[in-house]
Amino acid sequence: MSRRREQDRFGKQARREGFPARSVYKLEEIDRRVQLLKPGMKVLDLGAAPGSWTLYASQKVGPRGRVLALDLHALHSEIPPNVEFRVCDAREQTVESLGGPFDVVLSDMAPKTMGTRSADQYRSFELFLTAVEIAARTAKVGGAFVGKIFQGAEFEQAREALRKHFVKVRVLKPEAVREESYELFLVGLGRREVSLGDAPTAPPTPDPDET
Ligand SMILES: C[S@@+](CC[C@H](N)C(=O)[O-])C[C@H]1O[C@@H](n2cnc3c(N)ncnc32)[C@H](O)[C@@H]1O
């Protein structure tokens, strides 16, 4: 099947399965490949509208799990009982307001594209860094992160930013990403106990008897 027909298939499948957007299959593939979401987990979903990822995460974590979803705009789907949704700007949230800690932090945040590729990429990079910072402060040790970024000059910087906080970093381009799109997903696994580059703890006091 050609890539274009494959893309149409995702749109039809989303409508059939009751998801507001085909983007659900990007998360579904990432989840399948890295075993991300499990029953009972607590998930933060940044850039959640129209709501496909939220709905998928809500189903995967089940009634014992929780999803906190944020977006500048309202969701286009019913909000399941295990989901709390807030209309807000992720860049203005404090750690206290988000609660947590979260097992998984997701970010599908994307800027409104202006048509200038390098500017769009830079704004996507900034949103990605916002999401990494939030994950650094709210993800559990051992937790995971998935973030979207438009591939561009800052890509390596984005990957390095994630490596500071997660033991393993993977780059994934799910099949449901449109052929012409330059979006990629950076996946961080195993939130570090101490982020790389953080000030080390005080060295042990030298033993006065030791020469
Ligand atoms: C590609 S859509 C997300 C699709 C969603 N994951 C789904 O599956 O339905 C990107 C979203 O990021 C949101 N967004 C962009 N900047 C944001 C910000 N600063 N805070 C919160 N959401 C933001 C946009 O409003 C938009 O709804």
Alpha-carbon distance between the termini? 73 Å
- If you average the pLDDT, what whole number results? 92
Multimer state: single chain
Describe the main β-sheet briefly.
7 strands, mixed
Flag low-confidence runs. Answer: 207-211
Q: Write down the Rg.
A: 19 Å
Spatial sequence of strands, sheet with the most strands: 3-2-1-4-5-7-6
Number of helices: 6
The fourth-level CATH homologous superfamily is: Vaccinia Virus protein VP39
Secondary-structure arrangement, i.e. CATH architecture: 3-Layer(aba) Sandwich
Shape: globular
Q: Which structural class do you get from the secondary structure elements?
A: alpha/beta
Order of helices and strands: HHEHEEHEHEHEE
Small molecules bound in the structure, each named once: S-adenosylmethionine
Please give the CATH class. Alpha Beta
Tally of domains = 1
Write down the CATH topology.
Answer: Rossmann fold
Strand content: 15-25%
Number of strands: 7
Range of helix content = 25-40%
Structure description:
The protein is of the alpha/beta class and 211 residues long. It has one domain (3-191): 3-Layer(aba) Sandwich (Rossmann fold), CATH 3.40.50.150. The chain contains six helices and seven strands, in the order ααβαββαβαβαββ. Strands 3-2-1-4-5-7-6 form a seven-stranded mixed sheet, sandwiched between helices. Helix 5 links the parallel strand 4 and strand 5. It is globular, with a radius of gyration of 19 Å. The relative contact order is 0.14. S-adenosylmethionine (SAM) binds at residues 20-21, 23-24, 47-53, 70-73, 89-91, 108-110, 127.
